[in-house]
Amino acid sequence: MKRYFLILCFLLAAATVSAARIDTVAVFSAKMQRDIPALVVVPDAAVGQRMPVLYLLHGYSGSYMTWQRDVTDLRPLADAYGMIIACPDGENSWYWDSPLDASSQFETFVSQEFPDWIDAHYRTIPSREGRAVTGLSMGGHGALWTALRHKDRFGAAGSTSGGVDIRPFPDSWEMKKQLGELKQHPERWDAHTVINQVDELSDGELALVIDCGYQDFFYQVNVNLHEKLMQCGVSHDFLTRPGEHNSTYWSNSLPYQVLFFHRYFQRQAAPEAVAVATGRRVVFIGDSITDGNWGKGDGKPSSERNLTDRNHLYGSGYMYLCASYYQGYRPERGYLFFNRGVSGNTLDELAARWQEDVVDLRPDVLSVLVGTNDVSRYLHWLMVSAAVEKPDFDFAGWEKTYRRLLDEARRANPDLKILLCTPFAAPVGAITEGLQGEYYPLRQQLLARCCAVVERVAADYGATLVPFHRLVAGLETALPNGDATYWVWDGIHPTPACHRRMADCWIEAAARSGAME
After folding, report:
1. Of 395, 369, 390, whose CA–CA distance to 380 is shortest?
2. 482's torsion region: left (phi>0), alpha (psi -120 to 50) or beta?
3. Alpha-carbon span 224 to 312, nearest angstrom
4. Following DSSP, what letter does each residue of 398-445 receive, concatenated?
5. What is the pLDDT of residues 280-290, one digit of tens each?
6. How many alpha carbons fall within 13 Å on the CB side of residue 247?
7. pLDDT tens digits, 208-241
8. How many CB atoms lie within 10 A of CB 21?
9. φ and ψ at residue 182, rounded to 5 degrees
10. H or E segment at 79?
11. Were 345 and a residue from 287, 370, 377, 517 both cysteine, which residue would form a disulfide, CB within 3.0 to 4.6 Å?
């Protein structure tokens, strides 16, 4: 008790000097097709190192602001224990994927979509060993429900004043809006209550902490859960103390739970976990050649793509092959890859999303491939414009924008490693036919000058040059069976064979410069 008292005194003192920041964010749910608000508390120590994440779930009639606004200041806890605290909005969902309401699919959001978004935007430990989840009341139910059903995603879970058995309360808190009437659907209620998930849990699979006040109306169902865990031989911490179902109790409970999770995270910090925690974050940004329809995007912005379907997370091009190479052959390094290619993008369109798709992702390594669409749009304008005076391609402006974007990325991370890829075209397909064909020599001249800009910028920024234009030019002399479309099928987009060679080119360039070390 003396140690706990000293810890609590330290937290109270730290509250006045806390350096943690609070981010209020909106996270797109692909399953619900809407933005869900959330609050993220980032400790000052998160700058430059990876940290575990504690997910805090609110109760019925609450919101993502409940913990910070109504219970306690989370910043001293985040700073004291070196963890990110993330509070998603769960509405009045009870954190189920409702079988009745397609707009209420919060099990998927809390277990998949939100953690993936957090991992993409903060320097986390992106594994179950670096995630814990707890909550109050409805959120206590939600935390245990989520962790018990997604043990591959969370290593520890808790509940304070949790509604861990919903069946004694069939007419309360809008649960029947999510599940239907208990009398009509008893099997559904049985299947959606936490206490019945314990049968699928083996001892040691989750680190569990559960507490409830003696005067709480959920006290008996928590005792029942404790007894069932004991019967099943599942180790857990179970705490009871005087208290009601209110913020006074929860503000007292949370520091004890956070200490429990802190100790869990410390136990996971074996050498293997440390290696994962130091993995580089690698962002590829560009146009359709990088995109490869990652996240089943069909040209959509990154925030609207599917981040949970791991079959399509990297697309189907050279970026996918690079990511699979490093993650497959060097798993101990814990590389995290992010595809942020968007089909049809020019450099200006990269600039419009640079903050979200580059700076906010906090990359350690940044790869850029752009230029093809800038030239294509300029040529299209020449072909359709009736203007007598037709200005030249603005290479000076293009280079200025390119440098400005790299400056922004370097300001966010002075140690950023940069790989700049050159754009290219090949003399096949529609770009060599008809009116486009008449402009093909000019296309190559413009692309050559873009490549010269990229080479100059790479030299000035100490970046690694990835000379895709030279690669493709060389491949044009090695056409199997004389098939001019073998490498670049339409003059712009690589075939799978060419993507393989592009990935090799990228990996070799990174190896020579040490960018991925």
Report:
1. 390
2. left
3. 43
4. HHHHHHHHHHHHHHH-TT-EEEEEPP---S-SGGGSHHHHHTHHHHHH
5. 899 999 999 99
6. 10
7. 999 999 999 999 999 999 999 999 999 999 999 8
8. 13
9. -60, -45
10. helix 75-81
11. 287
Kindly report the three-state secondary structure assignment for every residue of 432-476: HCHHHHHCHHHHHHHHHHHHHHHHHHHHHHCCEEECHHHHHHHHC
For the four alpha carbons of 161, 166, 167 and 169, in that order, the dihedral sign comes to positive
Determine the length of the chain: 517
- The three-class DSSP label of residue 155 is coil
Q: Give the Cα separation of 421 and 451 in Å (integer).
A: 9
Q: How many CB atoms lie within 10 A of CB 64?
A: 23
Q: How far apart are CA 408 and CA 54, in angstroms?
A: 30
- 369 beta partners: 286, 421
**Residues 331-363: pLDDT tens digits?**
888 889 999 999 999 999 999 999 999 998 889
Spatial separation of the C-alpha atoms in residues 239 and 236, rounded to whole Å: 10
Nearest-angstrom CA–CA distance, 499 and 316:
9
Beta 21-29 vs 34-42: how paired, if at all? antiparallel
Lookup: tokens for 169: 């309360």
Selection from 67, 61, 60 nearest residue 22 by Cα:
67
Tokens representing 180 are 């239907």
* Spatial CB neighbours of 39, under 8 Å, sequence gap ≥ 6: 22, 23, 24, 25, 64, 65, 67, 68, 86, 87
Q: Which of 195, 264, 191 is nearest to 232 (CA)?
A: 195
Q: How far apart are CA 343 and CA 287, in angstroms?
A: 5
Q: 14 φ, ψ to 5°?
A: -70, -25
Write the pLDDT tens digit of every residue in 132-186.
Answer: 999 999 999 999 999 999 999 999 999 999 999 878 888 888 888 878 888 888 8
- CA distance readout (Å), 179 to 61, 98, 111, 147, 200: 18, 7, 20, 20, 22
